[in-house]
Amino acid sequence: MQSTKTPMNVTILRRRDSCHSSSSLPEGYKPQSSRDSALSRFLRRFRSNASSTYDEVLKAESQFESEEGNKPDSFDLECVVKRIGQGLQQAGLCTSQDFERARLGAAGDGHLRADKVLIPLGLVKERQLAEIYSQVLNLPLVAPDAYPKTPLFPDLLPESFVRETKSVPLALDGPALMLALADPLDRFVSDVVSIRTKCTVRTGVAVPFELDSAINRLFPKNPAGSISRKDLQNDLLLERDIERLKDMASEAPIIRLVSDIIQRAVEMRASDIHLEPNSKEFVIRYRCDGLLFDDGRRPVAEAPAVLSRIKIMANLDIAERRLPQDGRFQMSVRGTEIDFRVSTMPSTSGEVAVLRILDRTAITFDFERLGLQRHLVEAFQKALLHPNGVVLVTGPTGSGKTTTLYTGLNALGGTIRNVVSIEDPVEYRLDGVRQIQTNEAIGLTFSEILRSVLRQDPDIVMVGELRDTETARTALQAASTGHLVLSTLHTNSASGAITRLRDMGVEGYLVAQLLVGVLAQRLVRRLCIYCKRQGGEVEQTFNRLGVTASLSNVATGSVWEAVGCQYCRNTGYSGRLAVGEFLEPSNLVRELILSNADERTIRAQASKDGMITMLRSGIDVACTGETSIEEIVKQVGRD
Ligand SMILES: [Zn+2]
Q1: Do 421 and 430 touch, CB atoms closer than 8 A?
Q2: Beta-sheet pairing, 573-583 with 515-527
Q3: Residue 148, burial from CB neighbour count under 10 angstroms (0-12, 13-18, 19+)
Q4: Which 3-state string (H, E, C) describes 468-512?
Q5: 492-529: pLDDT as tens digits
């Protein structure tokens, strides 16, 4: 799970926790609307719901009259909203100007509350706002595992009610019902729930996307709603008519469908969205933690309009459907500005698209968040302090190599060294680093840029990838003339990087002389914190998986295993962390490099010199319960 910093005095409501009573609302807090409008809203909701009887409405009315809190008295919601603004400023989430901007925007938009427009304006994230609500109103924050497995009071609080009011009953605690609310300032909802269920209601603050995904779980339905199939097919008779396609792509149902697809992907913490029509269906898949998940099939007739919509967003030519195109667009999803890189490609069954999700805020360049083991971070950071030489990060595609390099550079921040990076493409901007993007079409290759950059007196040069012989040789030459060169290579192990450089035609003496260190890494999935369980002994697990690594020095005892729950889509895992090995060549290893020794020999010597292999390091991580031995063996191999 993505852990976010929680302000100090926020209580988290997990299952079986007790809630604060809603009577603990701060002084000055009053229901959102005056009694009359609250009651009329209440009546409207009740009347629109077929399951309510007239008796219930009458009863509700009299209850409203009798309740102390509903007397039409001085109404000071503004004061609470102001305190929320102050809370956001104190937490450094929003400047007073931003909040003022939101307040004015809200005022201009009818009677909206300032805090309600912060998310759509992209000023604050949903979780941050929820934490501030919790703090200011002194209500517990609802944890994702606090939601029930089946709906509570489904007859009294049906799906329509739950969706409309953005509230979910969590559990009964004696006569009290705990209720998760997306808008805790709307006390009207808890009043209605209290009347309907005849329970005292205690409120907790929900993070809206967690609440929404709980609702979708409790009341499964097609997430993107439905579009009239007949309409689509009628329109698609004229599919070749580009103008028509453009119109369809601008129509509300398609816009909503696309934004639902994107929103869902972001909520699932996916890295990519795949939109693939085949001859029968339109398949939507998300990549989460490195694996593809099928997220439903839609009528194939919808595909051209959806693809066109995405192409319009990314400024691509919607008339061109026979050539691949690349583009990007930005969109605010639940309060976070997110970049999407779009790539479309023709296929035999129609055009397909892949959207890469680049959430800058999800990348924190923090070793703690990457999960890289402490001894690796220390060795890597020490290597980055060298005045010259080569530091490499290796691993397969998607193993987080670049993020680790960025994180290392970021940690150097504030030093007085001149840092230049050459990348293809520049995905994340780094403060204090001059980033240059390659452009092969006009001859701006890695090696070309590298040569010019070296004339500009850099101290540290980061080269996105040692992709070809020329780049590798130029990089090593730069290292030999007093620069520290950082780069990545596609190899599975640290020792593999050495032989790869040699295979690319870099002279062994340069490698032996200039290599400061190699960090090889792999991403492994983290066990879901809500469902993981202890099971089995290390030794038994090794035997079962056919691991031959020596057990000496491995912490023995029980290990953890994946189970699967609603939160982790029944995979047992959620999020990923990096495991790795760091090879710092000893004199003996340098001699082996000079004598063209093979990978295995170099690796054996490095282990003798004290290198902790990736498998060993991964097993140590598994013994702490962060991941499973199965996952380590799957990603790292059996050694
Ligand atoms: Zn789980």
Answers
A1: yes
A2: antiparallel
A3: middle
A4: CHHHHHHHHHHHHCCCEEEEEECCCCHHHHHHHHHHCCCCHHHHH
A5: 999 999 999 999 999 999 999 999 999 999 999 999 98
CA 237 / ligand 1 centre spacing (Å):
45
Report residue 541: phi and psi, to 5°: -60, -40
- Which of the four pLDDT bands, split at 50, 70 and 90, describes residue 47? very low
* CA pair distance 234, 241, nearest whole angstrom: 13
- For 378-447, where are the E strands, in sequence order? 389-394, 419-423, 433-437
Give me the pLDDT at residue 21, please.
39
Question: How far is the C-alpha of 383 from the C-alpha of 517, rounded, in Å?
Answer: 7
**How far, in Å, from the CA of 570 to the mean position of ligand 1?**
6
Tell me the CA–centroid distance for residue 50 and ligand 1, in Å: 37
* pLDDT at residue 394 is higher than 90: yes
Q: Give the Å distance between the CA of 312 and the centre of ligand 1.
A: 37
Compute the distance from residue 589 Cα to the ligand 1 centre, in Å: 44
Whose tokens are 């340098």? That residue is 590
Q: Is residue 385 within 8 Å of 481, Cβ to Cβ?
A: no
Return the closest-CA partner of residue 180 out of 158, 152, 211. Answer: 211
Residue 296 parent element (H or E): strand 291-299
Distance in angstroms (rounded) separating the CA atoms of residues 62 and 69: 13
Distances (CA, A) of 34 to 64, 186, 302, 329: 12, 12, 45, 43
Measured CA to CA, the distance from residue 608 to residue 617 in angstroms comes to 15
CA of 222 to the centre of ligand 1 (A): 22
- Give the Å distance between the CA of 216 and the centre of ligand 1: 17
Residue 388 pLDDT: 92
Average pLDDT over residues 226-252: 57
Question: What amino acid is encoded at 122 in this protein?
Answer: G
Phi, psi at residue 180, to the nearest 5°?
-90, 130
Compute the distance from residue 527 Cα to the ligand 1 centre, in Å.
8
Higher pLDDT among residues 330 and 60, named by residue: 330
Residue 548 has pLDDT above 80, yes or no: no
**What are the pLDDT digits (tens) for 121-136?**
777 888 889 999 999 8
- From residue 543, alpha-carbon distances to 419, 540, 550 in Å are 48, 5, 11
CA 146 to ligand 1 centroid distance, Å: 13
Distance from the alpha carbon of residue 564 to the mean position of ligand 1, in angstroms: 4
The residues placing their C-beta within 5 Å of ligand 1, an ion, are: 528, 530-531, 565, 567-568
pTM greater than 0.85:
no
